[in-house]
Amino acid sequence: MQYFTAIANVITNIALFVSVVYVFFFGVCVYQFIKYPQYTPFLQFRRTLRMEDGGGGHTGIQDLVPYIHPIILACILFSIFYEWSSKSNVSILYIITLVLGLLFYWPDPSAPYSKRDLNNLQAESYKQAQDFFARGKSKPVNQSVNRFSDKVRTRSASNLAQLHKVISETLDLLESSTKDGKPSAKQIVLSGLTPYFNASKEEAATWSEDYDYAKSARVLIFNIAFDELSTGKYNLGTGFINPMREGVHLQFYVQSCLNWSYDRGYVTEAERDETLAALRQNISSVG
In degrees rounded to 5, what are phi and psi of residue 91? Predict the structure, then answer.
């Protein structure tokens, strides 16, 4: 009996720790929803549990999460029944944690389609269209094709919204690291996303769960900042960036994104230096 009590105490302590962590992260999700209202706190928390949010690419521990989470839920359930059988007041914290933990199994309506899913859905839509054509009914054909298009658009919009969120957070991080009093260039980059997003609508529907949002965010920030600086709009004269305008931060974005890519092996040192040299050449030729 003593051994059982000792083990039970260990499990309840684990459950208590997990409960505090879950409630804390759910609070963070509520805060993020208030600041960036793209997703509900429940969906954001579900993605946090599954380690799907943040865009850092697929990691090995993500493969273990589906096996670890049931163990955590089992600890929570054990703690609830243990306190109930001991005629103690069941902690409301455990019940809240159990509800939050079950969000792990909540289907994500914005989860990306795989290319296979898209092909199957398209094949199904066209098969229905052929059936309707054979019966001489044209109106339902449009409904069938629209059903496919609507689902693709919804999936694409959700993934692009996630990318937009990561880009915005990355820009906030870059801005907070400067603290030089210069005008922020964040809005310039966000305004420049429209043509990139329009060109990626179809492709975005096929992004998988391990899509590297962080890498794509840095690439887009780099591209927009590079192109903006190359126009000469932020130069005080030929080859000289106005120190009182947003060009200072645009140049910082380019350098930071290149260094970030170099640190992770996406570009070589030579490629980084050549890109910076090309930017300096562009700036020196406009004004």
Answer: -65, 130
